[in-house]
Amino acid sequence: MTSDAAMLSRAAGMLAAMGTEPRLRIMRLLLAAHPEGCVVGEIGAELGIAGSTLSHHLEKLRAKGLVDVQREGTFLRCRADTAALTQLLGFLYAECCTRHRVVDPAQLACCRPGALAPSRRPSTPARRSR
Fold first, then answer.
1. What pLDDT, in 10s, does the model give residues 69-120?
2. Which residues, including other chains, have CB under 8 Å from residue 27's CB and lie 6 or more apart?
3. Burial class (CB in 10 A: 0-12, 13-18, 19+), 39
4. What is residue 103's predicted lDDT score, i.e. its pLDDT?
5. pTM score, two decimals?
6. Cis-peptide into 113, omega within 30 deg
7. How many CA atoms lie within 13 A of 111 on its CB side?
8. Is 46:38 a contact under the CB 8 Å cutoff?
């Protein structure tokens, strides 16, 4: 498989993994909590997702390289893999915004200063001391 075909396959898998509302909410929460991430219990409490369901979603995201999970004593800490997301966004950006200029980067909310009002950003979970 060529590197372009491999990246296409990887990008499709990553997008599919984020393709459900709960997983997209998890990713937004982990990005809002970057770089510390969240322990699994915090994610469930913040998003109102039951433990077994949350485990299923986190495994799908972990399997596609979008989330890193590390054990900290009795806790599992999850972090968004920003390197993988950067690669995915770069892959999409290369086609839409550089080569063919289909999308003007200045029109993207993430690229305009002040475009994302604080009320539209995902809330940051309350940090609990252990």
1. 999 999 999 999 999 999 998 888 877 766 667 777 666 666 655 555 444 4
2. 18, 61, 66, 67, 80
3. buried
4. 72
5. 0.77
6. no
7. 9
8. yes
